[in-house]
Amino acid sequence: MGRPILATFFFSLLVAPVYTQQGDETNSAQLTTTQGNDGAARQPIPLNHPEAEFPVKARANLSEGSCVISMTVNPDGIPESLHVVSCSDDVFAANSLAAAGKYRFQPALDRSGSPVSTSLKVEVDFQLTKTNEVRADQEPDVLKCEIVAPPGVSSQTPDSYGVYPLSKAIVAPAIARFVDRGFIAKAHLSPNLVACDIFLTIDKKGRAADPKVAHCDEQILEAPAADSLLKSRFRPGLLNGEAVPVRILFHLVYTGSAPKL
Question: Do 105 and 38 reside in the same domain of the chain?
């Protein structure tokens, strides 16, 4: 497989940290918001996990680098007035700006609880990582993935272990990198498009646990599908901007293309 290209985000709001969400050791973003001194009682809370596209020129040259982007988060939680503060190489500037502009936030609140604008700086760090793992969104001809709520979910409260069912109140987890443990090779033996539905718990750090196969089109795919998802990495689900463990149903489809070796 090729070299997955990673772009990691670091948030800072000018003074001391009050909230940290630590990503996994190789792929997820580390998001750190800090208490500003601009009169806001609560600083913006990120609601999504956009990714920066690695520049083609930098990939060809195997170059790594980072940019710091300044923005204003308006009362609707939308970034405005974005500009580049600094870049290790100008090749990363445009893609850093584009990615930072895709963020959405719960806005900062003043002491009366009203949304207000506030300033934010974002560091976008582009890293090349040697790995046999494959980002699912880089293999559109091989895999299609969908994350949905488990059937029959009506409650929005966590279970006795603190795990939430996926519901409208939660920003769903998303697969960051698919680690194939034999699923693609076995699925390729089938003459037809094949799919598996697997229950998973995604924890606060984006790690999968407790896989249970709900259905696979072919029994031989059950074990490698479950093992592949167990080894894969996810962006965690969010509740009110904070990472929480979430129980999901993962729909994994092999489209019938030849595996890439």
Answer: yes
